[in-house]
Amino acid sequence: MAPSLTVRVDATDGLARATTITTARGSFATPCFMPVGTRGTVRAVGADDLEALGAQIVLANTYHLMLRPGADVVARMGGLHSFSGWDGHLLTDSGGYQVFSLDPGGNVAVDDDGVTFRSTYDGSRHRLTPEDAVRVQEQLGADIQMQLDVCPPLPSPAPVLRLAVDRTLAWGERAVAAHRLDGQALFGIVQGGVDLDLRAEAAERTAAAGFAGYGIGGLSVGETRAEMVPAIAATTTVLPSDGPRYVMGLGDPAGMVEAVALGVDLFDCVLPTRVARHGSLLTDNGRINLRNARWAEADEAIDESCRCPVCLRWPKAFLRHLFMVGEPTALRLATIHNLAWTLGLVDRMRAAIEAGTFADLKARVLSVWG
User: Fold this and answer.
1) 268 is catalytic
2) What is the tens place of the pLDDT at every residue in 207-217?
3) Phi-psi region at 271: left, alpha or beta (left = phi > 0; alpha = psi -120 to 50)
């Protein structure tokens, strides 16, 4: 089987790197932020909006899609690209995090073979094994799929972290053995909490398993940045350079710039879209709340340096008005801006790496967002 994914390193600045990742679908540049399309679409916007913003890859949620409408339905509709109308790259998670975080009543049963859980929708009982996760994601037809993993909460005692690492590694080997779809890359996931030695061990063992790329899981779940950054460093320094490094669930500006400085390539997070729906907008000067009365007659753009279609057309006062009267258009416009700003930030990171000025950009971002 031909390689399902290749990485070309275009520039480095310290450990930070700008790469071009090529899959069976085509190529995309990193550092790269992936908007989260949980149920097949990014909430409040359409595939046409994402195309206009220059998004390269979207994440879809296996847990939700396998339950509704069902992976078999998506497969009969030609796969998730055809079903959703998105022609760019797609990454699907394995559903592992949602299995543990969304189970009503917390009755998840984990054993060495897999996990049994109840649907967040109707309480129905389901079983998911590493092989099932591969099969479901093959039905969804994403360009990149993730192995099933065990994601323990933080903080967790050492025995819980150790068991999560060992099970995730065993499940990863089974996923590699089950994976047969040519052209669909399979990523492993490194667990280990904030235990640096365990992280390094898990990264080394994951790298030996034969994955096309590597997710760094179990972080951005409530730990401090002072805990997260060393855990990322303990992982990236061990992972090979010929596979993408992806911190799962990370999307705050400070966290992303810290991770890129350590050699991370990919990110996903609901933060930009979720806060947008509450009137919170991201700018070069920090976050602003459009519901604040100070913006009632503000005739300037959300961010004067932003060239997104929202900033080029509408003032803060009008957008605030839309939020205050409950106009649904507010959710779409705010989401477009926050996605544009976040995608613009990773583009600036790439440009700074290419120019050898990444340390300066990192310092500027941290001075605002740190």
Assistant:
1) yes
2) 999 999 999 99
3) alpha
